[in-house]
Amino acid sequence: MQKTLIRLKILLPFRIFAEKASILRIVAETGEGSFGILPHRLDCVAALAPGILTYENKSEGEVFVAVDEGVLVKTGLDVVISVRNAIGGTDLGQLHEAVKKEFLSLNEREQNVRSAMAKMESGLIRRLVEFHHE
Prior knowledge:
Layout: E1 6-11, E2 16-30, E3 33-37, E4 44-48, E5 51-57, E6 61-67, E7 70-75, E8 78-83, E9 86-89, H1 92-133
Parallel strand pairs: 1-8
Antiparallel strand pairs: 1-2, 2-3, 2-5, 4-7, 5-6, 6-9, 7-8
């Protein structure tokens, strides 16, 4: 009897980061914690948090990928992960530092930009309301 295995695809905004077949298991991180995917797990969708994605196959063994926030979709034996950024590596310590340095600082910058944009938008709306009442 042939064992059914997962097909994994990791997508970035402008390219395919990885496309792997014969995956035994996947472990991903969400805001609620880590969860695992085996071939016969029910289909699901999960919002991923910045962290370390782990997958295992017979040829490479356990592989670690630092991923930014994104989405994981499992349908049948296909798992598609779409993230803004990903970094592959074998040293977990270096990948963990990359997550903290690259992805979490990016989120802080984005929050600052969004805050500035919200202030600009509210100022514009306030001025439009004042103009409309004149």
